[in-house]
């Protein structure tokens, strides 16, 4: 018997979240109810809680679910109760014009693929209702644990996508500005895509150390050295083929432009606020053949399947990024640790 009420992390206004009860939803057409076994907190959740990204009051937040199918609604075929599934942070319908042209994250319109904890109840809860279930329930192979795959839902899919969007070539030099969880995955992606030199930039020692473990050949601590100067030195004055922005700040965006070779690509992952400016000197007056590209986390079950294959074949290991463990009841503490970046935290496991 499925319970009738469940606990969830509810947004109650700026800097206010509460663990509260809600009715367990009943899956409708092409929906599935999943009992959440493991989830995490994303940097975007911090923006939401701090009131920097608007969501409605009363919404359950969280968008990185791993769990077990409790019930499927009408129209969902090929799935049984009790099956372990990973669901991407982005849940495309798989049928609209944007989905069918490969832009799953932009399902139905700009940023429309991001629904969990944005426009519908998310997964920092005991149960989550999955929309467009047929396109989004990715079955987890028995060889992989929940911990092996939970970070694929968002940060790995996002981080790796920066290198895919920029189409990193064999032998490229790639600089990744910021080595938070997403930047670290971009670093791993650059290595997987065959870059010859991967440069990770951050000021946090733990993160720079992790950057090396994830595939960076060189790391730059921007608190002690000018990162633009250092990237140019490492590349013998040539600049990088691809610069990845993984923070969402004017300064890192600008630094990316300044380290690009002519014709290079700025692959942007950051979520910016306010205004983003392009200094014309860094942009070669607009005629240096520089491309500025952006990506929102690709989702959908096929994306999740491919990412799980990468983990299963040992090309990618995200376990070291999962540094802390909390129960759902400890959600306030988890937000505190993750939000303050205390204790060398990278990602936190939340277990409902
Ligand atoms: Zn996220
Ligand atoms: Zn769609």
Alpha plus pi helix count: 11
Strand fraction: 15-25%
The coarse overall form would be globular
The molecules bound to the chains, other than polymers, are: zinc ion
SSE order, one letter for each helix or strand: EEEHEEHEHEHHEHEHEHEHEEHEHE
Biggest sheet, open or closed, and with what strands and sense? 6 strands, parallel
Task: Measure the end-to-end span.
Answer: 18 Å
What average pLDDT do the residues reach? 97
DSSP summary, beta strand count: 15
Widest β-sheet, arrangement of strands: 10-9-8-11-12-13
Structural class: alpha/beta
**Radius of gyration, whole Å:** 20 Å
Helix content: 25-40%
Low-confidence stretches: none
What does this structure look like?
The chain is built from 11 helices and 15 strands. The mean pLDDT is about 95. Helix content is about 25%, strand content about 25%. Strand 11, helix 9 and strand 12 (about 260-270) form a beta-alpha-beta unit. The two termini are about 20 Å apart. It has helices at about 45-50, 95-100, 135, 145-150, 155-165, 180-190, 205-215, 225-235, 250-260, 300-310, 330-340, and strands at about 5-15, 15-25, 30-40, 65-70, 85, 125-130, 140, 175, 195-200, 220, 240-245, 260-270, 290-295, 320-325, 345-350. By secondary structure, the chain is an alpha/beta fold. The longest helix is centred in the middle third of the chain and has 12 residues, at about 180-190. It is globular. It binds zinc ion (ZN) (2 copies).
Give the tags.
binds zinc ion; 352 residues; alpha/beta; six-stranded parallel β-sheet; five-stranded antiparallel β-sheet
